[in-house]
Amino acid sequence: MSTSKNDVLPLRTEHDIVLARQHVRRLTQELGFGLVDQTKMVTAASELARNAVIYGLGGVVRWEVLTDGTRRGLRLHFIDEGPGIGDLKQALTDGWTSGSGLGLGLSGAKRLVNEFDIETAVGRGTRVTVTRWK
Amino acid sequence: MDRIPILRMGEYLLVTIQVDMHDQLAMTLQDDLTTAVQRIGAKGVLIDISALEMVDSFIGRMIANLSRMTRILDARTVVVGMRPAVAITLVELGLSLAGVETALDVERGMRRLRAGVEESGAAIVHLEE
């Protein structure tokens, strides 16, 4: 598996959430994703970007265009240095929220992608990696 | 400050969301719309989301809340024009928008709002029988 291109975008403000999802939209279009797949990836990106801004107190999203044999995909890493998640199992449960949201951010985003990985440590931050293949 | 325009058509209000909304813009729309419903005594609200390429849990919640808030203010909200890819994604995300009335396009949405007044009238007649 190889990375053909990658870059980093900031996630500091609400406006950055909009910019991130627009960027992800363009990348999925360039990769030739179908409309439903584009929408799923963009929506997952929006949820995770908001988590990084609101709960992670800001961070970045690093994106990579991947090639694995004949298939291509997009991988996104949402990285923050916020408070981290104490109870990961609970955070991945539908409807559970530590804030005012619906509690669908993490669990919902997980359902919208092909691969989902999360690393977190209390006081150190959170890194969520999602991949969607064409 | 950015604002989404709210158009008045008699006793109905029409909102067409044409921009990729940031969160604050969605909250401002919620405030503006409920204020407008109360001010003109609107009977119905039509929200056209045909230009929205994505509805995430935040925007979905805003739409569901608007529907509930206007109901408390004695107005019906119909959400029209959702793209199929958005509907598929919303359901997988876990958001079914329960209780939110929808129609395929503005015309059908308006018809539904107008018919709704008669429908509720008919229900009362039925109860009295």
Which helices and strands, and how do they pair?
The complex is a heterodimer of chains A (134) and B (129).
Chain A: E1 2-11, H1 14-30, H2 35-54, E2 59-68, E3 71-80, H3 88-91, H4 105-111, E4 115-121, E5 125-133
Helix pairs in contact in A: 1-2, 2-4
Chain B: E1 6-9, E2 12-16, H1 23-40, E3 44-48, H2 57-72, E4 76-80, H3 84-93, E5 101-103, H4 106-128
Parallel strand pairs in B: 2-3, 3-4, 4-5
Antiparallel strand pairs in B: 1-2
Helix pairs in contact in B: 1-2
Report the CATH topology name of chain B: Transcription Regulator spoIIAA
Q: Counting H and I runs of at least 4 residues, what is the number of helices of chain B? A: 4
> CATH superfamily assignment of chain B?
STAS domain
CATH level 1 name of chain A: Alpha Beta
Proportion of helical residues of chain B: 40-55%
The CATH C-level name of chain B is Alpha Beta
What structural category do the secondary elements of chain A indicate?
alpha+beta
pLDDT averaged residue by residue of chain A:
93
The total count of strands of chain B amounts to 5
- CATH architecture title of chain B: 2-Layer Sandwich
How does the overall form of chain B come out from the CA principal axes?
A: globular
Oligomer: heterodimer
Roughly what is the average pLDDT of chain B, rounded to an integer?
89
Helix and strand sequence of chain B: EEHEHEHEH
Structure description:
The complex is a heterodimer of chains A (134) and B (129). Chain A has a single domain (2-133), classed as Histidine kinase-like ATPase, C-terminal domain (Heat Shock Protein 90, 2-Layer Sandwich), CATH 3.30.565. Chain A is globular and about 40 Å long. Chain A is of the alpha+beta class and 134 residues long. The model of chain A has no long low-confidence stretch (mean pLDDT 93). Chain A has a 5-stranded antiparallel β-sheet with strand order 1-2-3-5-4, with helices on one face. In chain A, helix 1 runs antiparallel to helix 2 and helix 2 (35-54) packs antiparallel against helix 4 (105-111). Chain A has 4 helices and 5 strands. Chain B has 129 residues and is an alpha/beta fold. Chain B has a single domain (6-128), classed as STAS domain (Transcription Regulator spoIIAA). Chain B has 4 helices and 5 strands; from the N terminus they run E-E-H-E-H-E-H-E-H. Chain B has helices at 23-40, 57-72, 84-93, 106-128; strands spanning 6-9, 12-16, 44-48, 76-80, 101-103. Chain B has a 5-stranded mixed β-sheet with strand order 1-2-3-4-5, sandwiched between helices. In chain B, strand 3, helix 2 (57-72) and strand 4 form a beta-alpha-beta unit. In chain B, helix 1 (23-40) packs parallel to helix 2. Chain B is globular and about 35 Å long. The model of chain B is unreliable at 120-129 (pLDDT under 50). Chain A binds chain B through residues 14-15, 17-18, 21-22, 25, 35-36, 38-40, 42-43, 46-47, 50, 94, 101-102, 104-105, 107-109, 111-112, and chain B through 20-24, 53-58, 60-61, 83-86, 88-89, 92-95.
